[in-house]
Amino acid sequence: MMIDPLSDIVEYRCKANLNLYDSSDCQQLATQAATGRQLRVCRLDLENPRQAIQVELCEDDYPGWLAIADWDLIEPASTVYQSQRLGEADIQQRLSAVIAFTLEAMNTPNHYLWGGTVGPHYDCSGLIQAAFASQGIWLPRDAYQQEAFTHRISLDKSQLMLSCLKVGDLIFFGTSTKATHVGLYLGEGRYIHSSGREKGRNGIGIDVISDKGDIVSQGYYQQLRGAGRVVNGYQSGTKSIFALRR
């Protein structure tokens, strides 16, 4: 497919799983797009017109750079993407399947992959997004965006009471100013998440919200920020929560 920056094609569909990068040199993975997702072409890199195209994924408005070598893996979309409107009741009915997705992913050989969203290798927020998306519930891409999007339960560790949590809530970790990690609450103080090699489990595992757990659980407990509840699906075009980048 020839690249025409003046094309009237509005959106494209991914014919295969794609890697998107954080800059036009295509060195650092930013995120991935599963087969069937749609994207918009933003602009070509005029300094490297043969290397990458700047795009934006339609379901979560997430930006990235698509390598020119992968251009043949997208095709014009037959329809423009439209977000599905879901209420809290709809989401509650789907949470058991969301959790089942994460457990199946954990039981599949995997390791932590920064930018991973299509499996078997995920980063923390990529696992959460993929699990909810598997049930037609789109969330923003990054942990801090997911925190801003959810209904806040608590952002004060001293006030986070486990009795306030429900299965399927998101648990957020990070600094005092920004969420940098996220997990999915399973009940009884446990959460499932994909954590890194250096301070985590180098993949998907289950930890506890306690300073009495093993060294990994203790480490994340020290970074606990609070929790949030998914009460609706992300609506494409909502970008106010993207003020920061990870």
Automatic annotation (TrEMBL):
Domain of life per record: Bacteria
Ranges where the NlpC/P60 domain occurs: 92-232
GO BP annotations, alphabetical order: proteolysis
Keyword presence, Nucleotide-binding: no
Keyword annotations of the record: Hydrolase, Protease, Thiol protease
InterPro entries, alphabetized: NLP_P60_dom, Papain-like_cys_pep_sf, Peptidase_C40, SH3_16
Gene Ontology terms for molecular function: cysteine-type peptidase activity
Keyword tRNA-binding: no
Family listed: Belongs to the peptidase C40 family.
Protein name (Swiss-Prot/TrEMBL): Glycoside hydrolase
Phylogenetic classification of the source organism: Bacteria, Bacillati, Cyanobacteriota, Cyanophyceae, Oscillatoriophycideae
